[in-house]
Amino acid sequence: MQxxxxxxxxxxxxxxxxxxxxxxxxxxxxxxxxxxxxxxxxKPLAILITHGHYDHIWDAHALKTVWPHVPLFxxxxxxxxxxxxxxxxxxxPCLAEQICPVACQRARTTFEVANIPITYWHFPGHTPGxxxxxxxxxxxxxxxxxxRSIGRYDFPYSNCADMKDSLIRFENLESPCDKPLYPxxxxxxxxxxxxxHMKAWIAHL
Length: 205
Description:
single chain; alpha/beta; six-stranded mixed beta sheet
């Protein structure tokens, strides 16, 4: 898998294009990402949203206008952030029928696109539906886990107790090998590099 990344907007939110032989997956198309995505994703298979904050979804509507038949997946508990301008920022909402909601329930949900397994790991706290998306042994962690940091839990719709529970589950996430982790902001890291830091963050909450 080849991964392209470009940061967009005043929050410098990472938009990713994960390219496999079958085609391209777009992760979190934020403010201003549309033109870059259209230039670099020639065979789009799906748009994958890690969570519903505006800086991760801003250009989802624009991409669906160009690619009406490309599925848009988002955590079920954050769909309302895509279908309404709930923060009154001028977001152009998507229609509910344009979105494929992914079940949350503090578990993992796996489905296939072009015979490629996609797993949504639900870690609420930053948002109700906040997820890490796993594909081909790579995590796209959105605003849940960053390099040596975690997502904020003091925004509207955030929940500190949920974040603490999610960090505990992330700390205990078992994997036979280390896996790359590509966050919504900043530099990449790995699963096993970040897990040892969870106790300090959990104690801080």
